[in-house]
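S.,

Sequence below, as promised.
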Amino acid sequence: MSDNREALSQLRDDPEPLLDSPEPAMRRLAIVAAADHQRLVGRVAVMLATDSDSAVRRECAETLGRISSADRTPLRSALQDPDPEVREAAANALGELGDRTAVPELVALVGNTNEDALVREAAVAALGAIGDTRALPILLENVATAPPQVRRRCVVALTVFDGDEVEIALRRAAADRNPMVREAAEMVVGRSVD
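The prediction came back faster than expected:
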């Protein structure tokens, strides 16, 4: 019990030594705690690129996504991480931060039909959150052609854009063969299409 209290006290007061823990779970806790210590944000960014444990790298991406002052370059680089969960977390973080400079990389993820579907979904959600019109062509394409979960996410992302082509795409999605895509589009369009 005393060891647990010491670790918790260490996490609160100065998590830096625990960032070097041999235990991935302890490093993950230290990363979360590091968000409250501005001097450690750069260290978390380095760990995003270098830690051997993918769960730790994912935690780094999630944590950096909650720090508006953090350098976004490591998150954009993490879109190429070998682990799809890290790429997904990086895409989510960039969307949360509204990073317009990441739009080309996010568009590439959405357009990569060999990419993990959850990563593509996260990239679509990020593009919707960012709301940059450079994303519109890939969203319009994927709302009609991507796997169902990506099409559904495209419906939601398209709601931040205006224009006839968006309205047409959303109405078509309301008649999609997949019920979850149809349901999302019907909520947006405001009527059920039989």
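The chain has a mean pLDDT of 93.

Coffee later?
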